[in-house]
Amino acid sequence: MVDHACVSFYHITNIVKAQEKPSGGDYHPSLGELAVSFLTTLPSEGRDKAQQEVYNFAHWYGWNRLVSELSAPNVASYADQIASAGTEAVKKLVPVRAFLNYAWRRRLTKTNVGMHLRPRKAPSRTTLSPGLASQNTIVLTAEGRAKLEADLASLREERSEVVEEVQKAAADKDFRENAPLQAAREHQGHLEGRIQELQSALKAASVMEEGGSTSGIGIGSAVVIQDVESGKELSYVLVDSREANPLKGKVSVASPIGKALLGRRQGETAEINAPGGIFRYRIQHVQ
Q: Which of 26, 29, 93, 201 has a beta carbon 3.0–4.6 Å from 133's, enabling a disulfide?
């Protein structure tokens, strides 16, 4: 039986190859056309993974839009959008960046817009900034430390796989057009940075003792607060920014709520400055 999907893919590929020119000039391909062309340069074992992300980008930007219309602000916007979806952002962006670099090397874009495919840095529970990781005192819950240790172990395993990817890609001696090698090295560099940050954080971290602090609300405190106006009760656990997970009721001590509650005791009232105004909460219970 004929696989029509494969026939379609290679038919399109052959058309694109026939139309391609080695550089810019009169050649003005659409994003979709160049995406197909780029994928033919990748080894078969890595093509499927790259295809999904490159096609996602092309459809997001406009499959039929010209490559020459790519702009740095829009590329940066795509990076931010992917980053907001979770911690796999960097992996998703690696093949897209390689695709944009491919367009730049073929002189199809005025600037290397791939340089702007980086999500703006924002604090999250899985991404540590070098400044935070180098602080002298980091207080974590036992659960939080275990989570960071598990993340570190996972990254070390992934690093071994990436080293193999780099070695395979480096076997191609034509480094000028070796997009897989560049993508693998960028991924490797990101992993090394993350591993160093986690190692620094764990080295500087101490686990808070059970029973918590006797000087008021602090990291690890489970707090029940009541809105003075509406009477609605909310429950939170205060944690370091590395453990913060609002969906699970874990708020960072650096957040507006965390700052307002730090050091206070049961029965006191805290004012929280939020974009919607000032809210007053009575501290009902602290554990």
A: 201
State whether 196 and 239 are in the same domain.
Answer: no
Domain end position, chosen among 95, 120, 145: 120
Closest of 126, 127, 143, 140 to residue 218, by C-alpha: 140
- Check which CATH number belongs to the domain holding 149 and give it: 1.10.287.180
Among residues 84, 103, 120, the one where a domain terminates is: 120
Spatial separation of the C-alpha atoms in residues 118 and 116, rounded to whole Å:
5
Domain span at residue 60 reads 1-120
Q: How far apart are the C-alpha atoms of 184 and 52, rounded to whole Å?
A: 17
Cα–Cα distance, 148 to 241 (Å, whole number): 12
Chain segment 41-54, per-residue pLDDT in tens: 888 777 888 888 89
Q: Higher confidence at residue 15 or residue 264?
A: 264
